[in-house]
Give the backbone structure.
Amino acid sequence: MYLDLNIPWPTHHLNYLLQQSSKKSKQTHSNPSKSHQTNIDIWHGISPQEKQNLRDLVECAIKLGYSVIAFNLIIPQSLDPLLLAPHFPFPDDQPPFADLDPRTCSNSNSNHFDKTILQLSRLTLVMDEKGPSGAKGVFGFASSQATYLSQYSILSLMPLDSVAFSHACLSLSTPSPTGIDLISLDLASSSKLPFQMQLSTVSQALKNHVLFELNYSPTTSANRYLSYSSTNFPIVASSTNCRRNLVSGAKDLIRVTNCGKGLVISSGAKTWSELRSGDDVVNFMNVVGISHEFAKKATTANPKAIVSKARSTRLTHKGVISNPIVVVSSLVNSESSTSLSSKDHGHINKNDGPLKRGFASTDSQTTSDSFVEDFKPSKRIKNQSS
């Protein structure tokens, strides 16, 4: 199954949040989790045209064979994430397009598609060393934001300089409720990154199971790309060299990630015309310099592992992904060998945790029901209580 973990969420209606003082925002959003649950309105301030554009993107992704997408809200480090509580993310049982999501499509009769797509939420923090001293996100996500951040499926960071990149790889990649899952790089804005990616620094992030994201939309968007800043929301920019810049930067990223073993390839598409099928993306990455095997994993196995790892880290105690199983003593000798042999041959054991069962089921191309099951609200409550 193919996954696209970067469908940018509109941000122009959130510009007023940047103008609010930090003292006022702390008083207004002292209890973000409660306000998020009662007053959330993801479509407030978004025009009907933008909403239709997002729906066209989702429908196109379904037609191209994708099973999972993530709506990515990209914010500067100068913005306190708690201010976003009334706007984002959406609850698990209320995805942006309920008739297109397998968790909620049974409650709607307006879906004319035979297939559905799992819709996840993602938050990306754009960071550099020049952020204001009083900003919440200068050093990444704060522990006081853990309750709010746990509502996101994925947390990621985009470093703009060497200090932010090193901090992301060495410190923020450590597994924790506020730790990051992906490091996304802006490869299209310039001919080369403003910092050098050291192999030892990248290796530490990969050791902590944090992967690096490459977005291909600058090659399919008629010389348009998103320009990022640590003080403002991203804006659309134009350059005739963005394709060349992306390919050049991608080769450097492939080099430091051991021939692309630690990559996740996403679209970053702003319109449906910028999307490409998973097979087309694999072929494009072959041209850039990644083998077919690793390119395939970068669009399937790697993003799926990131989603499951992110969820287990934030919704369970210290990343434990399944409940302990009590085995009756009289059955130990008779069942232990059978259980081990079934696991060795890749069979699904009924006693395995929900995420492990999801991995085993989604490795086949016939169904992704078990993977989707882990994202239902009932499963979320069960994990939190345990």
Q: What stands out?
A: The radius of gyration is 21 Å. The longest helix spans residues 48-63. Strands lie at 2-8, 66-76, 118-127, 154-159, 182-184, 211-215, 224-227, 235-238, 263-266.
